[in-house]
Hints:
By secondary structure, the chain is an alpha+beta fold. The chain has 14 helices and 18 strands. The protein starts with a strand and ends in a 10-residue tail after the last strand.
Amino acid sequence: xxxxxxxxVVQEALQAEELARQAHALGWTVTGITTExxxxxxxxRQTAPKLILLDIDLDGDGVVLAREIRDLGEAAFIFLLSExxxxxxxxxxxxxxxxxxxxxxxxxxxxAVLLPAWRHYRALLRFRLLHRYAPSGVLLFRHVADEGTYxxxxxxxxxxxxxxxLPSETPTFEEYFRDIDHRELRQLFDDVLLRGENRSCTVILxxxxxxxxxxxxxxxxxxxxxxxxVFRDDTAAQRQKEEAQRxxxxxxxxxxxxxxxxxxxxxxxxxxxPLEKRLRLCLEGLLAVLRRERPEAGFLLRWTGGDLAVGxxxxxxxxxxxxxxxxSSAAELIAFCSPQGDxxxxxxxxxxxxxxxxxxxxxxxxxxxxxxxxxxxxxxAIALLESALNDLALPIVLADREGMICYVNDSxxxxxxxxxxxxxxxxxxxxxxxxxxxxxxxxxLGRPENPLGHRLEITDDGERGAxx
Length: 468
């Protein structure tokens, strides 16, 4: 970048030699001298000079040659003009030269133009390198009044990578941003052009739940209706951030669901609370979790004990959970109710985690109802058994596995005069010892090797004693 190289392309050979001599004296390396346009292009390919000193009248029009050379690579020009050539000066400005030398040449003519041209070239080169390799995208649009829109005239390497191939050589604003909703961005372009103020904005585009675009645009107004849009694409970083937030949210929601299920199980196991109240508290606890995402949801429970509705139940019934309790004549039902779906009015959409949570909650309720029914049947069976034993004339005392008295029938009280309250949790052997051995018979209940309990029968009147 610091090596100063110069190619000289002028019509007169003597003038070219003089310019080369002065350039050498100023510390420049002359890569080649030519007086023909075709030779100049070949020389440029071979030597790639930093600057080109070009006669504007070469081959009739040196400006045309300058454009052809620029098509071959990056080139910066200094034009050699004849004194009073205003038309040539006008033409030369179209290729943005770094300076001009007017002939006839003076002793300081070349030095006066090469020094600022070299500084300008280095600054321009730095800008081009930054422009090309900057991580931010740069788009240069020009307003086309006849078309009522803007056309892209240049973009840097970052924009090429981020936005992909162009739909055309100079696409319109609408063609370039065809993949996004560009209405607000177009309005911002118009505001910058109308008011002459630089503006900035953030463009966020989502398709369903997927983040498609997250960009920060800074719009800079230049002369002749040119607007440079410098943008930073944060789509990938924002996706990672949202994914991390989603995972935290999912983890928090999963913990909340587990806590709700544990609380529901605790409520359902509380036998001191009436069953219907337990069921309602359980459903309300489950619904409190679901309502964070579905505020209009509800539960409907139908079982042999009646119907129970919690929340909004006049909605689409989703996730019907059918079950049957023992001795039930019809199938019971727990249903989750939710508003109708947007795409399919006959259903609602639930995530896998939501579905699993609802299913587990329903299973807890169904299990509780089955257990309650089994407990009721067992209590009825015990009551029937006690009634049958009380109706027997034979005095009977029952003890558990540990031999502690747990049941005394009415005949025993009549026969012995001992009351049930006196004998409760008294060792059976202690009772047998207080009575005549010949008047009592102890039998195991169940298998002899592993009895479930013991039974004491009185075959003759015993004497009443005060068991200790």
